Amino acid sequence: MFESPSSWDWERISAQLSLTPRESELVQGALAGKTESDLADAFSCSQHTVHKHFRRIYRKLGISTRTALVLRVVDAVASIGELPPPSGDNCLGDTS
Hints:
Layout: H1 10-17, H2 21-31, H3 36-42, H4 47-61, H5 66-79
């Protein structure tokens, strides 16, 4: 099981991914399951502005989906040593 994304070192993750502070905040919201509408409300901006930020983030990271964004963040977290070692269990129940 992963640690809560809120406990990760977002300064290091943002540096690893070359994210601005605002982009980092939006990525954290996306990882928390927030919609663009939720994020627009939280940041007191339009949904269009949030969408533009995500397009810029995706272009910067060379991705095109939220799923790819999550995978890219997990890779960054793993590369800076923020993920705990595997427990030996996997989704198939094989512990070998």
